[in-house]
Write a structure and sequence with these properties.
Blueprint lengths: L4 E8 L6 H14 L3 E6 L14 H12 L5 E3 L2 H5 L5 H11 L3 E8 H5 L7 H7 L1 E5 L16 E4 L8 H9 L10 H10 L14
Parallel strand pairs: 1-2, 1-4, 2-3, 4-5, 5-6
This protein binds adenosine-5'-triphosphate and magnesium ion (MG).
Length: 205
């Protein structure tokens, strides 16, 4: 009997995508024998509505650029094209329609996992996908009050990188080389992202 397909789902704001995201996806792909990992950039993130988030098309293109060389990585526009705030329950419903007879593995960092109980319709989520919590420097997985057996915890090579840190560095004129893929350094420069008072990204996509 053939095994059901296994597809990973890596949701994020990806503003910008960095090597922490890529290592997490790659490690879970290998450990769980996933056919593919789908990166899903959020629409307007509801938990970050107080912050300024780069245009969805910039975040989408950066995610495409960063994942293009890996045949097991692909990018989905479901959350961007749906419009409105992104809820993981909608992401997983859409992907389940797109990938029938498939087990979905939702990959999330330790910080996001701590907040998981605050998520919209959390009980349904655990029925829709396996949840994989990955380690992240600065965050502990112990404190998260998660239903027993609902989440698999995976240790990944430590990457103390965050998008916030990358944005702060660009704003301060510091390099982000080697924190993000080369193409992302170039894309950030080309679009003038994260620089206060720059003309870009005033461009509306
Ligand atoms: P920000 O600082 O803007 O919140 P971020 O670096 O946390 O950005 P997100 O797009 O918010 O990146 O995260 C997407 C997912 O990737 C989340 O599940 C997050 O926990 C996980 N993640 C992000 N960075 C790392 C990292 N360095 N190691 C492990 N997981 C990570
Ligand atoms: Mg984050």
């Amino acid at each position: 009997m053939s095994r059901r397909r296994r597809i990973g789902v890596m949701g994020g704001t990806f503003d910008p995508i960095h090597h922490g995201h890529l290592v997490a996806a790659s490690e879970v792909q290998a450990q769980f024998g996933l056919e593919q990992v789908v990166f899903v950039p959020t629409g307007q993130p509801w938990q970050k509505s107080h912050e300024v988030v780069s245009p969805a098309e910039d975040r989408y293109l950066m995610t495409v650029i960063a994942t293009a060389s890996n045949p097991r990585f692909l990018v989905s526009r479901v959350d961007i094209d749906r419009g409105g705030p992104t809820y993981t329950v909608d992401t997983l419903s859409d992907l389940r329609e797109q990938y029938p007879d498939t087990d979905l593995y939702f990959i999330t960092g330790a910080d996001a996992l701590e907040q998981i109980v605050s998520w919209h319709r959390v009980v349904e989520l655990f029925d829709m996908a396996h949840f994989i919590g990955v380690t992240r420097p600065g965050y502990s997985l112990d404190g998260a009050h998660l239903p027993k057996g609902a989440v698999s915890l995976v240790e990944i090579p430590a990457m103390a990188i965050s998008s916030t840190g990358c944005r702060d560095r660009v704003r301060a004129g510091l390099p982000v080389w080697y924190l993000v893929p080369d193409g992302i350094v170039q894309y950030i420069t080309k679009r003038g992202l994260y620089r206060e008072g720059s003309d870009s990204p005033a461009v509306e996509w």
